[in-house]
Backbone:
């Protein structure tokens, strides 16, 4: 009989512990509220969790503590995402290139493609600069003769000047792209060496 009574008391204790407790908080009006569910909107004063006996299970979290906890959780999540992305990039790097030479060759090819575009833009700009100089010279000749610059010449000059500005912008973007590709190549090579060390050569 004592055994059954002990088991019954143990079951009741476990059941009581498993039941949810109460939540206590102070609302915006300064009134103390109790509920078996936490408030939908977390109050500024925080929410304390109580047992059915009124004992504090978990003290109210201050706004500062909540912000710190949320910031730590966000930082932890960001770090986990960074590690996942890094692992995915490492996998692609190793699967795409059998050797460091393969990787270097591919990156040099990409840089060469961008450099070819830069060279083509530079040639276009040089030709455009010569054409714009011709327009400026012709316009100056009319002004020396106290004549109005013909509208067609003035239009061509303004169009050429705008094209030159556009080409300068494209050149700057392509040059930045080449620099970024070069930096990426060096970073990829360094990472590749870490992931796949080269065998040491015996003397």
Residues:
């Amino acid at each position: 009989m004592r055994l059954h009574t002990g088991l019954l008391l143990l079951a009741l204790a476990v059941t009581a512990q498993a039941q949810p407790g109460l939540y206590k908080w102070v609302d915006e009006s300064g009134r103390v509220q109790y509920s078996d569910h936490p408030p939908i909107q977390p109050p500024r004063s925080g929410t304390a969790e109580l047992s059915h006996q009124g004992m504090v299970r978990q003290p109210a979290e201050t706004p500062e503590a909540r912000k710190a906890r949320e910031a730590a959780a966000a930082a932890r999540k960001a770090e986990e995402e960074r590690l996942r992305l890094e692992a995915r990039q490492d996998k692609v790097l190793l699967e795409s290139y059998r050797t460091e030479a393969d990787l270097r060759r591919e990156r040099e090819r990409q840089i060469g493609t961008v450099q070819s575009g830069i060279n083509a833009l530079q040639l276009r700009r040089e030709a455009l600069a010569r054409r714009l100089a011709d327009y400026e010279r012709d316009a100056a000749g009319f002004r020396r003769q106290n004549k109005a610059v013909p509208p067609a010449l003035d239009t061509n000059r303004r169009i050429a000047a705008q094209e030159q500005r556009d080409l300068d912008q494209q050149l700057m973007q392509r040059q930045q792209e080449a620099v970024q590709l070069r930096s990426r190549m060096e970073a990829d090579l360094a990472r590749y060496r870490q992931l796949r060390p080269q065998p040491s050569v015996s003397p």
Observations:
- The radius of gyration is 37 Å.
- The first helix runs from residue 2 to 18.
